[in-house]
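dude i think i finally got it to work??
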Amino acid sequence: MGDLILGDLIAGDFISGDLILGDLFVGQLIMGDLTVGDLIVGYFIAGDLIAGDLIAGDLIAGDLIVGDLTVGDLIAGDLIVGDLIVGDVIVGDLIEGDIIAADVIVVDLIGGDLIAGDLIAGDLILGYLILGDLIAGDLILGDLFVGQLIMGDLILRDLLAGDLFVGQLIMGDLILGDLIAGDVIARDVIAGDLIVGNLLVGDLIAGYSYRGSSYPR
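look at this
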């Protein structure tokens, strides 16, 4: 992502030469404009995917076929989903450019303003997602499992992870240059200000990770 600011909403462009996430293999990934040679996500296989703001004519993923999904008050051209399970969705304003997912399972989604350009995920499972303002240009993850995600301001340049498991993630300000991980497993991550230039890990397992004025729960 060029600039991804959550809390204050500014989403620039997501430009990555080679992006490998879980089962996501991309030759060239340029968002704002998305051009993909071969995109394989979970059960999502596309020969050539070219989109302006990620609007695809035909997207075939596992049991997911989406023509165009643009949501203001939920306006969908063609939406065919293999498994879409939503418990309670409570959103002030939900504006999404395109949502592409093999399986999207949401228990409770509570947000003041949720603006997502593109959300591409193999499996997206959220226990509770509570956000003041969530503005994302592009969020691409292999598997994202979140128990509780509570954020004041979240600024991510690039978040590339095969598997991201978070028990509780509570942060004041999170600024990451590049986060590339095979498996990121965090039980409790509490940070006042967390600034990382480049974080390259094979396996990151943390019981408590705290920094600055933060403290373990």
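Residues 4-211 form one domain.
im so relieved honestly
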